Amino acid sequence: MKNNDKNFNKDKSQNSKTPFKPKLKSTEKGNLKSNRFAKAKSKPNPHFEKKTQDDKVTLENKTSATKRGNSRTKTENPKKEFNREKKSEEKFERRGSKTVFKKLDKKFERPVRVPAKDTKPSKSVNTPNPANETWRLNRYISNSGVCSRREADNLIAKGEISINGKVVKELGFKVRPNDEVKYKGKVLRKEKPVYVLLNKPKDFITTVSDPQGRRTVMDLVKKATTERIYPVGRLDRHTTGLLLFTNDGDMAKKLSHPSYEVQKIYRVELDKPFYEEDLEKLKEGLELEDGLAKVDNAAILSPDGYSVGVELHIGKNRIVRRLFAHLGYEVIRLDRTVYAGLTKETLGRGNWRLLNEREIIRLRFFNKRGQ
Question: Which one Pfam family would you cite for this protein (predicted)?
Answer without folding.
Answer: PseudoU_synth_2
